[in-house]
Structure formats: structure tokens, C-alpha cells
Amino acid sequence: MDLLFTLIKTGLVMGLLYGLFAYGLSLILSVNKVFHVAQGATFVLSAYVFYTLGTTYEWPVVLAFLGAIAAAALIACAMQYLIYVPLARRDADPIVVMVASLLVVALAAYVIELVWGASVVSAAVPEWFGWSTTVGGIRVDVYDLSVLVMSLALFGVMHWFLTRTYAGLEFRAVGDNPERAQALAINLDRVYLRSMILGSVLVVPAAVLLSLKAPIHPSMGFDLLLKAVIALTIGGMGRMSGAMIGGLLVGITETVPLFWLPTEWGEFVVYIVAFFFVLFRPTGLVGSKRKPRSAKKPSDPPAAPRGAASDESSGSAMPTPVS
Amino acid sequence: MRLIRSAQIAAAVAALTLATACTTDSGGSSSGTSDVKDASGNATTGNETYKLGVGIPLTGPAASYGEEFVMATEDGVKDANKKFAKDGIKIELTTADTQATAEGGISAMNKLGAVEKAPAVLTAWGPVVAAASPVAEDLGFALFNAGAQSPALIGSSPNLVNVVPMNDVQLSNFSQYLVKTKKYKKFAVIYVDNETGQGTSKAFKDSVETLGGKVVAQESIRQDATDATTQIAKVKDSGADFIYVQTLLVEGAATMKAYREAGLKTPIGGYAGEGESPVIRKAGGDAMNGFIYMSHIPKDLDGVTKLLDRIKAEDPKRVLTNASYDAYFYSVPFVYAEAIKELRSQGAPVTGENILAVLRKKKDITVPIVGPMDMTNKLTYVGPTIIRQVNDYRVDPMSDETIDSVDNG
Amino acid sequence: MSYYLISLLGLLPIFVILGISFNLLLGYGGLLSVSHGGFFGVGAYGTAILIKDYQLEFLPAVLIGAVIAGVMSLSVGYAAGRLSDEFLFIVTIAVQVALVELFNNLELTGRSAGIAGIPRPTLFGQQLESSTQVMMLSWVFLAIITAVCWRVVHSPYGRLLKALREDVPAARSLGKRALWTKVTVFAFSSAIAGVAGGLYAMHTLYISPAEFTLDRTVEILSITIIGGLAAYWGPFVGALVVLALPELLSFANIPDSVAGPVNGIIYTLVVLLILIYRPRGVLGRDPVKVAERNAQRRSVKRGGSRRGGAGEGVPDVDHGLFERVVEAGAVPEVKTLRSEGIGISFGGVKAVDDVTLSVRPGTITALVGPNGAGKTTVFNLLSGALRADTGKTFYGDQDISRLSVERRAQLGVVRSFQEVRLFEGMTVQENIHVAVTDIRHETIASQFTPGAWRGRDQADADRAEDMLRGLGLYDKRHALARDLSYAEQKMLMMGRLLATGASCYLLDEPMSGLDQAARSQLSELLRQIVSDGSTSICIVEHSMQVVREVASWVMFLDRGCLLTEGTPETVMNDPELTAIYFGRPV
């Protein structure tokens, strides 16, 4: 029985980490309408910045963490101005944007190999991070608790931000309908940049926590990115709660079946479950009831004066509730 | 317009194929013959430079190993050139990036074999060796393998020379020690889910079971996985007496960390890649003390230490990960030079085929650090197995205790 | 040197084939699938195992491998038919990873170690001896596949694929088979990737799961996008960049210690710059220019005989447009669309309740009612977009209650949407051309029948051009549909419906947003359509003005129930109904 409980706990912690990774993706997807795959690059670069500040220069963990956040914000600005804005100006297909974003992940790995070298390194771990206790036969340590606390805290803060603050409402307005938001005198460029920065910064906790737990290397994070994307879809695209619940679901699916199955089939199970899940419940767990058929590429409807208004309006392009 | 363009493309393609078809076909070789060919009998005397290709990952996840191996090989070339200067032999290194993948390997091998025209190429990594063998046969160069230890490679190609001990002998020595000396009965295996991991796990099971032991759990872990709690929990559940671990760095660190955190008292061990890796030792911490590993490190530990110190001096920032392999990379230029020397004395041209012919016959090649290297049996070197134990995870792996050794020579 | 070049030249056609087959999916079909690398692997493993363990010749082995890849891709094709883009993306990622896990874990595929020592292939009893011969084999396959795919892309099938990329519901409303077409394109494309896999196994003589991972798929994606989405020769350029650029860089004089990362950085930066400065890809072109060029080429081929047509004054709508359509189709039977007690509820609320109505031939029937009365829902029920909870729908004598949108459209019941829903990224002519084409000519197999070579499609194109003359859009036939004015778009939409040769038209607010002139033009067209006595039209309309102008029969709907029906005069003059319509005091 211990084994099963351990598996469940491991799955939950993994799942929360996937969710933590997915928050930023989710925000950027819902506001900027970009599948920001380059989040993987932000992840690994901020991990290396954390390593350099915290381990090489021996700064305190908190300062190194802030440094990593600053780095993530810088990367976000660079991404926005060097990649996304030029592509948007040339009216690039969303797929082209995604491939460009993927290339940035590869570029980041090469840059790291050049600057930091290709070797696997481990960050210095502060003493208190090694603390652990046993609850009901299950070992819980600072890493587990940090992931849990970070995940819940960020979820709460983001929820508050998006529903209670003016800046957050701007985000949601732009996510819902950029044209209308613009008509309300919201500066689109500013909101896009802000959401890119905020979304990128959101991945830093995951990067820092993972660097404290495991060695870091240039190609880390891609697997996490993939799982986060799956989590996002299973949970419901563009929702914070979806990211978290989806993450938990992926984590559990990944570990618990291993109670019965050989470990080498773990990955296969996750992806096959995801396949059937998406096929038969494409709106995600917390998704709105929208007909899968109604999805159509976003396009500006010609400015047709709608008679006295219409009956049921047909499904909108992409559901974008943020919260 | 478009028709014209497609016609142009078609014409260009046809011309290209024709051109290549006419100019080549010289690559084909008659492998399998074992005698030195075209020997004039008059010894070659003038100074000459011979190329040694090195196909190693310089980018990608395996690049950190690759860089270290290149440095070891470079040192070997420097020393070999000093030693064989009087014989008029100078070896020149030329590298190509394999990314540790089959496709990258083929491309690198083609470049080294056909463009650089190196008669011998040094490489490592199972997929690369497997994919490079047909290229070596086509182009007729000798393929030195100093890293991949899968027994399936022995004799898999007439052009393949394994200069590193294969792990079938190693595993059988190691399981002998575990079953006979240590009296362990039930074993669990945690292996990285790649070619080497799967192969070794199977080989370990086979050799343990022929000795009357039993493998009660075989758990795989993904390469670069950051959490091994699941694997350790399952192994714990299996009630094994001994855990054998066969992983690379990141998931190896995760495994040892999970082992430490689970507070498992079951003895644990593995191969040199784990025992010697500072990253894994650090992750395992106290739990790493007592870790038993089999190593193919040459007996001349002082020689190895000197080599490692030298590499560190050249690149002080580098954390060395695989001490036991470096010496074999270091030795290849010497083996190559010995073969060249033999060919020159017979007045035979230095071709891959001739190098192979020499190695198939010559039993008395001796190189620094590794010592005598006899590769006449299936072009594979059989080295000693040393079983070592970590007593203090913080010290340099070179100071680990040697608790047993089997001389297979 | 030459051997090195041969090895690269042997890899190049394989990558081009992958790019071409992927372009079918992504470029022409707009289907973002990330599992191509996996199906490439299925073909490679299939071929390798059959050749190594069963001593098959190359051709049967690679064909079986391709068929296996195609069959396995049916799952993804089915998903593509059901899901929208972003979900298809995820599903295909899942399939990709799952395939690699299978290669990794199955004994059949040699697990992680893969399959080594694959013998070179035999072809018609002839053993291929060198990599040069294998390389030439690959080029031959590339030539064949290029020709076959060219044919498929430039055929009614390819056009339908593009239409589905633009707007699936609109295509289905014209009677086009969306699911079937997507499933077949996936199977076709994956089978070609399987062929590429077979060639790859012969090229490397060693395969392992690592060759077919997500990285490979991303590489194929890059090839296609660098070359240009839907640019037919794009993959040639893309493959050259992806393959040759890193090789060229490896010859650059960069110190060994940093060569790897520096090469990687240069390579990714170059590709990024290509994408940023040419997001359409190196060979990607403006679709308008492509259409114009194609038209020019066609007319040159036919000796410019029709070129005079462009100069003619644009004929008016009453220039016998409809006659042409009727003459094109079969003599229509007279059929009535009627419903018997249909109803549907959403979450417990009855949106449409027990509605019995009939749309009679030869008349223009208007469906009116206040907002939220359920008019569009009735349309959705009649056209098959929604399935009724209760009641039945008949067309003529046939019960069509359980038929899908496209089946009903094929029987002659077509609908328009409140939004125009043109195939916006396609030209005006293509919009009509798609609708004109018979669905039997829109399969892959039918592109290789004698009829296809005898200019069947050209006849359709001519018919489309004739219709455009009638609609007054001939001059703009090469413009993209999205660049038309709103009135023109509405005309085009009508034209597209007419081109299907249907006999019952359900038009959702056809007049909204049109000015007086355009409205009377359209009204005229509608009257003409029903003047043959066998065609029926039903419109949803808000403007009483319009209803009076065009309708000969009015049905009044409120809260999902049919309140009354009659001639426009009687219904419009009923004070009670007027009160309901303009908001009653409750």
C-alpha cells in the first residue's frame, strides 16, 4: 500500500510542477494568442542564470531567484520585439510563429552550450532545502512543499490579478476580443508586452525549484514543456485552473498506472490517455460547453450591420476566458 | 513558367546523378580479407602525416562527454607524435560532430572518411557505431570504438575495432562477485531507457541468473528524468538484496537522490559511469558511500590520474565525468601509430584495410596507461574488470577503494 | 569527397519527399499534424523488418510499409475530422510520442537498440550494391512522388482540401465530404512518409527510435515552412537549407572547441531570419499572383481562345445566369422540403418546439419572427447542422431526418450562413469552382482515371467562369474572396450556392448589410431562381421591407413555435403579430 501512496504523492507533485510550468503558457495563449513554445527557452535560461548567481557568485537564494526573474523578463521583451512583433507585422501564419518559437528553444540550448558549456551541473542547494518529514508513511520534503505552495499561491495571485485589478481586466478584455478592447482605448501593444513578460516570469519558480532538485543541463525542460502542453489541453485551454487540474491529471496518469505496469510503459500510457481524452472530450475538463465543430480560424467578420441583431450567434473563434 | 522550372530541376537532378554515378564507385572495398595488401617490402622512411578522424558529439545532450573525450584524444595524439617522431609518423586529428545520433554519425563518418580521407576514425555511442559500420565498410576505413560497450557490437562489422572492454565480460565478472562473494540472491535493476540501458539490463539479468541469482525487478527511467521516486519505490517493494543501476548523468542523479531520500538500506551499485560521476555522487550524498561499481579503468591508476589532471589543467572549469573512458580515448592514437609503424616497415600503404589487417594479427601492441592491447580476437580488446567501492562520496573518484579485480587478459 | 556528396544526395530526396507529403497536410490542408516523424518511422521499420527478416524485395516491402503507415494514420485522420486545429496539434503530439515509445519497447522493432545490419535492397531480382544506387533509387521515387502529388494538389481534390482549410462548415454546407477528405489526406500523406521511411532505412542501413522522435517532426515542419506553406517546390528549398546549411557550416573554419554550438547558433539564426523576413517561406507567394499566373498559363495553353471574354462588357445578372446552371445539372424533380413536428431543446430550454412547415417549390418563403425566436435553429435543423430531438424532416418523399449536412446538400438542400463564410483565402473563381465540382471527382483515386486527363476539371473551370460573368464578378475572378466588397462577397456566396445546382436554398439573412442597389439585384436573382417552378427558397429576414419585396409566403415564428403563415400581406397586417415582432408589453 505504501507503494501506491508514494506513487500518488509523486504524481501529485509532478503534476503541480507541470501546472506551474503551464500557467505562463496558458496566460500567453489566452491573451497574445500565441503558442509560446519558447517558454522552454525561458525556463532553461532562467535556470542557468539562477545557477550562475546562486552557485558561481554565491548570492543568497532569494537574490538569485530575483535575478532569474529579471532574466526571464528580458527574454520576454526580446521575444516580443525580435520575433513576435516582426512576424505579426508580416501577417505570418500561426504555425510559422510556432515554428519560430520552437527555433528559439534550439537556439537557447546552443547559446548555453557556448556560454556555460554542455556539461551537466548542479546548483548549490541551501541547507534548509534538505529538510524533510514523514506524514503517514509518506516522505514530504521542502521541494514538495515549495511546489505545492508556489502552485497554489501563483494560482491565487493570478486569479486575483485577472479578476480584481484593472491591468488584469485589460488582459482579459484583450484576450476576449482585441478589436473591442482597442475600441475601449486599451493599448494592445502594451498589454501584449505585459502579458508576455508576466507569462514568462511565471515559469521562473518552476525553473528554480527544479534546479534545486535536479542537475541542470542545456536541453532540460523540453520534456516538461511537452507535458505542460498536454496538461493545458486536458485541463482546458487558456485557463489557470485548467493548467493546474490538467497538470495534476497528467502527473497522476504518469505515475499511478506504474503500480501495475512496468515503468517503461509509463510514457506510452500518458500519451495514449491524452490522445483519447482529447478525442472524446476536446473541451478539456473545465472547458466550456462549446461544440468542437464551431471552431473556425479567427477572422474579422466584415463590418456588417446586424439587422435588429441575430438569433443565436454561431460559435466564436477561440474561447478565451482567462480565469 | 513553372513547367520550365520543373524541367530545369529535373535536368539538373539527372545531370547530378549521372555525374556522381560516373565519378564514384571507387568506395567499394573488399572487406574481410585479413592480409596486408600492396606491401612493397621496402620500408617507408620519409616523414608523413596521417589523419585520425574523431566522430564525437559536440552538440546536443551528449556533448559534455564528447568534449572530454576529444581532449583525452588530443593529449594522446600529442604524446604519440612525440613517441613516434623518430619513426617519421605524425598523426593529425580531425573532428566531426555526430550529435550521438545515427544520422549525425553517418554524416560525420562520410565527412571524415570521404572528405578528410582518414584511414581510421575514432568514435563512441551505440547508435553511432551501429550506423557508422556500413559507412566504414563502404569507405574502407578502420572504425575505433572507445565508448560503446554493448556486446552486440563484437564482430558486428569487419571494420569495427573495439578498444574499450565490452560489458558482457564486465557484467559476468561483476555478477560473479555479487553472487559468489557477497552472496546476494535477489537483484533489482534500474536502467535508463535507451539502447545501452536496455541491453545492459538484459545482460545483467542473464549473467546473474546463470549463477543462480534472481532478478526480481527491472525498472526503466527516462533519460534526463528528474525524479526517480517511482522507480525506487517499486524496487523497494520488490524486496531485492542488491540494486544494480545503469544510467547516465541526470537520471542517475535523480535515482541516487531518490535512493537517499527513501532511506533504503539495500546495497546499491552500478558501473563506472555512475560511480565516477561527481554529479551523481553529489546527488546521492551519504547514501553514495558503499556504492559498488564495476570499472574498466586500466590498472595503472596513477597514469589515469595524471591524464585527468592534465585535462583539468587544460580546462580548469571542466568537471570530468567519465574517468575510466578517457584513458581508452587517449590510447587510440598509440594503437593507430603502432599499426602505421608496422605498415611502414613492410612498405605497405596506410589504408583502413591494412590497419585492420595489422590489428587482426599483431598481439604485442603496448600503449601507455592501458598497457598491452591484444585485439586479435574479433578486433575486440578484453580488459580487466575492477570492482571498486565509494567510501566517501566527496573525494576524487580516483581514490575510491578497489575491492576486487579480475584480470581477463 | 564524392562519397560524402552521394550520402548527402541520398538523404536529400528523402527529406524532400517528407516535405512534400507534409505540405499536403499543412500547406494545402491546413492540418497541423506533429506525428509525421512517427509515420516516417513506421514506414522505415516496416520496410527494414520485411527486408531483413522476411527477405522481401524492396518494392513490396516499401509498399507494405507505406500501407501500414497509412492505415495507422487513420486514427489521426479521424481525429482531424473531429477536432479543431489546436486540439489536432495535441492529439498528433500524443501519437508521435506514443509511436516512439512503441518502437522503444517492442521486441519486434528491436527496442532502443533499433535494427542494425539492414541489407541493401534488391529490386526486380537485382541486388543494389552501393549507396550510389540507393541514392538513385531515392531520386526515382522522388520524381514519381513529385509527379503524383503535383497531380493531386492541382486537382479538384487539392482544391477541396484548400476549401476545408478555409472553412469546414461552409464546405460541408456545399455537400463536400469533410471527414472523408481529411482521413484520406492523412492516410495518403502518411503513406508517402512511410515510403520515405523505407528509403531512409535503405540509406542508413540502421534505424533506431531516436531517428523518429518529435525532433524529426520538427525538422520536417521546418523544411515545409522554410520552403513555404502550399508552395509546391518549397520542400526542395527547405530540405536543401535544413540539410546543406549545417554541412556547409561544418566546413567553416571555427575552432573545434566551440564549433558545435556556434554552428548551431548560426543555423538557427539563419532559419529564424528567413522566417521573420519571409514568413511565407522562401518560395511562398501571394495566392492572388499564383492564381493569375495559373490562369494565364491555362489560357496560353489553349491558344488564348477565351481571352476575349475578359474584355466583354460585364453582363447583367439577368443575362440568363440561372439557365446555365439548370442546363448544367440534371432536369430537377419537383420536391418539397417539409418538417413534421421538429423540436430541439438546449439544456432544458425548448429552442424549437413542434414546428411543422414546408418550403414549396417555385416560391420564396420568408421565415420571420422576433429576436431569439429560433429562426436560425430551425435552419440548422432543416439543413442538418443540428439533429432534432423530435419530429422528422422530408425532402420530397425521402426522410432526411438522420442525414448529415453534406448528405442533405448532395440531395439538393443547401444553406447559407449569417456570416458570409466564403473560402476567404481562395480566389473568387476557386470559390465557385469548388462548388461546381461533383464530389465524385474529389477523391484521390479519381484524379488518375481517364476522365481526369480528358479535361473534366477544365470544363468545370469554364462553367465557373461563365457563372462569374453572370454574377458580375468576372473581372475580379483572381482576387481573393476576402478582398471583395461586402456586397460582392454576398453575391459570390449566392453564386457558390447556385453552383452546387441545388434545388432548395435556405438563406440566412441574405440581404443584411446590403445597400438598396445590391438588394434589388439580389432580389432579382432570387426571383429568377424560383421562376423555373421547381426550385424553392426559404429566407430568414428581419427587414419587413425586404420580406414584402421578395417573399411570396411568410411563416411567423415566436419562441420556437410556428404561430402562423400566409401571404406577406395577411401576416404583416396582423396587428397582434406586429406587436409581437416589435416587442410587446408583457
Characterise the protein shown here.
The complex is a heterotrimer of chains A (323), B (409) and C (586). Chain A is mainly alpha-helical and 323 residues long. Chain A has one domain (2-286): ABC transporter involved in vitamin B12 uptake, BtuC (Orthogonal Bundle), CATH 1.10.3470. Chain A has helices at 2-32, 39-56, 61-89, 94-115, 142-164, 166-176, 178-183, 188-201, 204-213, 222-235, 240-255, 266-280, and strands at 132-135, 138-141. The longest helix of chain A is centred in the N-terminal third of the chain and has 31 residues, at 2-32. Chain B folds into 2 domains: 48-165 and 303-378, Response regulator (Rossmann fold, 3-Layer(aba) Sandwich); 168-295 and 386-406, Response regulator (Rossmann fold, 3-Layer(aba) Sandwich). Chain B is built from 13 helices and 14 strands. Chain B has helices spanning 2-23, 63-84, 102-115, 126-139, 167-181, 195-210, 229-238, 249-261, 272-275, 278-284, 301-314, 323-346, 352-361; strands at 48-56, 89-97, 120-123, 142-145, 160-162, 186-192, 214-221, 242-246, 268-271, 292-295, 365-367, 371-373, 385-389, 401-406. In chain B, the strands form 3 sheets. A 7-stranded mixed beta sheet of chain B has the order 7-6-8-9-10-13-14, with helices on both faces. A 5-stranded parallel beta sheet of chain B has the order 2-1-3-4-5, with helices on both faces. Chain B has a two-stranded antiparallel ribbon with strand order 11-12. The model of chain B is unreliable at 15-32 (pLDDT under 50). Chain C is α/β, with parallel strands linked by helices. Chain C has helices at residues 2-28, 36-54, 58-72, 74-82, 85-105, 131-153, 156-166, 168-173, 178-204, 214-227, 234-251, 256-277, 287-301, 308-311, 321-328, 375-383, 405-411, 428-436, 450-453, 456-471, 486-499, 516-530, 544-550, 568-572, 575-581; strands spanning 122-123, 126-127, 337-346, 349-359, 364-368, 390-395, 398-399, 413-415, 504-508, 536-540, 553-558, 561-566. Chain C has a 6-stranded mixed beta sheet with strand order 8-9-10-5-11-12. In chain C, strands 4-3-6-7 form a 4-stranded antiparallel beta sheet. A two-stranded antiparallel sheet of chain C has the order 1-2. Chain C is elongated and about 90 Å long. Mean pLDDT of chain C is 84; it is low at 304-320 and 322-329. Chains B and C meet through helix 1, helix 2, strand 2, helix 3 and helix 4 of B and helix 1, helix 6, helix 11 and helix 12 of C.
